[in-house]
Amino acid sequence: MANIALSEAEKTFILHGVEEDFRVDGRSCRDYRPMELETELVNNASGSARLRLANTDILVGIKTEIDKPSIQFPDRGKIDFFVDCSANAAPEFEGRGGEELALELADTLANAYESSLAFDLKDLCILPGQQCWKLYVDILILECGGNLFDAVSLAAKAALYNTKIPRVTSALMDAGEADLIISDDPHDCTRIKIDHIPILVTVCKIGDCCVVDPSAEEEECSTVSIVVAVSRRDDSTFISHTHTLGNGSLHKDTVFNCLKLGVPVAEQLNEALMKTLILEESVLGMQKNRSVGFLK
Questions:
Q1: pLDDT of 125 over the 80 cut
Q2: For residue 99, what are the contacts with CB-CB under 8 A and spacing of at least 6?
Q3: Which of 41, 73, 208, 225 has its Cβ near the most Cβ atoms within 10 Å?
Q4: Which tens digits make up the pLDDT trace of 9-58?
Q5: 196: buried, middle or exposed (CB in 10 Å: 19+, 13-18, 0-12)?
Q6: How far apart are CA 105 and CA 289, in angstroms?
Q7: Distant-in-sequence, close-in-space partners of 279: CB < 8 Å, separation ≥ 6
Q8: Is residue 267 within 8 Å of 8, Cβ to Cβ?
Q9: What region holds the Exoribonuclease phosphorolytic domain (predicted)?
Q10: Distance, CA of 132 to CA of 50 (rounded, Å)
């Protein structure tokens, strides 16, 4: 995360505001900052999205290729996450300074998507044991203004929503190997089911209170946060993964309060994101360079 120098007086001011449920920027402990979302920005990618959350700016591009399923899971496809922290995003990202954070973000996403209830890789299988689709989710952090985990998960889900996979019309067997015939029509494609893909919500503990969508300044006032990956299936909500940030510790009651706050916020956030994506696709169609804001 971006390190911001704050005086003790500034930290005390932020802490008192959180305790009164009135943060520095006027939000309550449950509110997110305004977001702007753009999709289909990268022409040579199967899907892409750019999300700006206040001063946090994330660009996601998704590429697809045909691969061979793993021996352990012959009926599943593959998905890989790669995060790159731009040196311009924060001074501490210069050189190799952002590698540790990038790896932490990628691992958290991979763990959140690991459950078949959250993201079913069987949908990416072409021929069991022979061929499958592999998704490369490349995430670039253009600017760091706090709450990277939430912003990255939202941008990744938006990019997966508009990802188009060429349709496989037939498969011929040649000497035991599959020879696929893939449609070259750009409009003859399949879409990825993203209904159950989890949303990450960072619940930040400041003093004795918990807040969502912490700014960079608020992150400096916290010693520990918990990232909750929340998904929905069959009208029920479940947590697919949790990840702790910071050097502090959490009491079991605090963990319960964090989850109690994070789960309903994730549901509202996911609902707003899906409405925005559907509205953008239905109203604006294939128009390029479009921008749609939500949660404003």
A1: yes
A2: 85
A3: 225
A4: 999 999 999 999 999 999 999 999 999 998 888 888 999 999 999 889 99
A5: middle
A6: 28
A7: 292
A8: no
A9: 32-166, 196-262
A10: 27
pLDDT at 249: 84
- Cβ(128)–Cβ(121) under 8 Å? no
Domains and CATH numbers, the chain: 8-286 (3.30.230.70)
Cα–Cα distance for residue pair 3/216, rounded to 1 Å: 8
The amino acid occupying position 15 is L
DSSP, res 68: P
Complete DSSP assignment for 176-218? TEEEEEE---TTSEEE---TT--EEEEEEEETTEEEES--HHH
End-to-end CA distance of the chain: 24
Structure tokens at 96: 């190799």
Q: Write down the residue that tokens 């990255």 correspond to.
A: 152
d(CA 110, CA 83): 11
Closest-CA residue to 3 (of 276, 221, 170, 259)? 221
- pLDDT over threshold 80, residue 143: yes
Q: Which two tokens stand for residue 201?
A: 């919500």
For residue 135, pLDDT beyond 90 = yes
